[in-house]
Amino acid sequence: MCGRFTQKLSPREVYDLYGVAGPPPSFAREPRYNGAPTQDFAVCRVDDGGSRRISELRWGLVPPWWRDAGMGPPLINARAETIHEKGVFADAFRERRCLVPANGWFEWRGPSQARQPFHLTLAEGRHISFAGIWERWETRREVIESFAIVTTPASASLADIHHRQPAIVDPEWFAEWLDPSSQAHELLDRLSTPNPGPYERWSVSARVNSVSNDDPDILRPVGEQLRLI
Description:
13 strands; single chain; mainly beta
């Protein structure tokens, strides 16, 4: 799964990553070093005309039919294996896909009383795009646009830390993922194999356990850094 991630790209970097034209506006919040569910993050999606747009959406999918936006736990992840058939995700998968720019994500390993957190990312500092889906929930007084991150079985080089990982979309299939007319079975085929990397991972301080700690020191290695090829 993915329960925390880092999004410290500048607006310019996000716009350049997805080829969005025009000068980028400033984000309405600071970089997320220890980003958590219910917070807002930048995502890339397409408008009704098929043009790419950058929006800030809440992490934790809110289905449009919920009577209350808080009636259930935040739906932060959607399993690639079942996303097309689970009612809570199926419509968004067919019609409302997005890309979530990131610098890396966190996972924990070990017994519950002494879990060691790790930061995981693509090697050489490459920007990451998580596969995402989004929804719009609204009443007469409130509108919430939210997203979930698609997950896959972990790459063999990361599976000793956690058996799941975010689905990573390579630039050559950005257009296919964002296009609502793409064939679902072709997308599912792509998602069925986790991105092979290479990855880098390193252990970080237990400060990451508290969402109130959201600063660059969160990413500081506390043990030997391991690069995986």
